[in-house]
Write a structure and sequence with these properties.
two-stranded antiparallel sheet; 9 helices; 16 strands; globular; alpha/beta; ten-stranded mixed sheet; 30% helix
Length: 355
């Protein structure tokens, strides 16, 4: 009888502990003592979305989870960043204990000067919370002691296309979480202090090199690297971030150009479809961006294009002013190897929706 009572007590103890740990949105599972050495010269935040379908096959037919490949790439860059600080957040599907209690399945890796400093498993506080709010909260909580002024701040995002409007189901296991250009920009801002801005935001997503996305990000981002048309999750090479190692004051557009050139070369050598990567100097585009955006918004309202179809080159639309709207935009473009667009020689650098 005593043995039965002990088993029951142990069961309720384990259940209670599981409930307590399951209710907090984060739980530190690994923490090393502060890495010795100089303060980091630059800071990189990488968010990898993995709560969706990211399976693809290599040319040899090998199945690969693209978000896992992106994580592998990010961890490699962080380990080589001997003068940098990295926060890598890997969003993963929601998991439950005994079908009731949410478990921590997403992960945050914090590197300083090439060494793992903190490793955190976390879960979102609510399935319908604002996009990136838990990630921004964790980042601020863990980075308070290492805020350094006048160092460059980079934000890299890997995921599917971020939609124009407020559609849900971007997350497979959290379908109530709304993800669109506006909520994405709002989420990014939560990572910043009042007087901070991003040196460069890189979107390794399809079809987000648009006037809409640029307008949302321009108040707090100096440069944007994105694709105006299709771009697979794993296609941006980020190894060129190592240029910050030798020169932490390097211009972010130089880093963006190095990443874009390397990605462009690999894509051109391996795929037959269109290759289009653009770097937007958001200080230079500011002279016309609001006007361009309003014309594009009117186009969306009047023509009601299918927002889930692939982008076209905005230069094909009648309201596009090529001389004016390409200032501050550097584009790496190669037309598809086949089809009606195969003869294309250039690209405006902007992607737009059309029927």
């Amino acid at each position: 009888m005593e043995n039965i009572d002990l088993v029951i007590r142990n069961f309720f103890t384990v259940t209670l502990l599981t409930f307590v740990f399951g209710c907090s949105h984060s739980y530190m599972i690994t923490e090393k003592e502060a890495v010795q050495g100089p303060e980091s010269d630059y800071l990189v935040i990488i968010v990898i979305h993995g709560d969706s379908d990211y399976l693809y096959h290599t040319a040899e037919g090998v199945p690969v989870q693209a978000n896992e490949k992106a994580l592998e790439m990010a961890l490699d860059v962080a380990r080589k960043g001997k003068k940098g600080e990295f926060f890598i957040l890997h969003q993963q599907p929601k998991k439950r204990f005994m079908y009731m209690i949410s478990r921590r399945s997403s992960e945050l890796y914090h590197f300083k000067n090439g060494e793992i400093f903190q490793h955190v498993k976390y879960r979102n506080e609510a399935d319908d919370e604002p996009f990136l709010s838990t990630e921004a909260h964790l980042y601020r909580e863990l980075s308070e002691s290492s805020q350094i002024e006048n160092r460059q701040l980079y934000f890299l995002y890997f995921g599917h296309e971020i939609s124009v409007e407020g559609e849900s189901r971007y997350f497979t296991s959290r379908p109530k979480m709304t993800v669109n250009a506006e909520s994405f920009a709002s989420g990014l801002q939560k990572f910043l202090k009042d007087d901070e801005s991003f040196s460069l935001v890189t979107l390794s997503t399809c079809s987000n090199g648009t006037p809409l996305m640029a307008r949302h990000l321009s108040p707090f981002t100096h440069y944007l690297l994105a694709s105006p048309q299709n771009l697979h999750l794993s296609y941006f090479n980020i190894g060129k971030l190592n240029r910050l190692e030798s020169n932490p004051k390097i211009s972010p557009d130089e880093v963006a150009a190095a990443m874009a050139k390397q990605s462009y070369q690999r894509l051109s050598d391996t795929i037959q479809t269109v290759v289009s990567l653009s770097i937007y100097d958001l200080e230079k585009t500011a002279d016309y961006l609001e006007e361009f955006y309003l014309k594009y918004e009117r186009h969306l309202l009047e023509n009601q294009p299918n927002l889930y179809r692939e982008n076209i080159d905005c230069g094909e639309l009648p309201f596009f002013d090529k001389e004016k709207y390409t200032v501050g935009v550097t584009t790496f473009f190669r037309a598809p190897r086949f089809g009606s667009q195969a003869s294309g020689e250039d690209h405006s650098g902007w992607g737009c929706k059309q029927k």
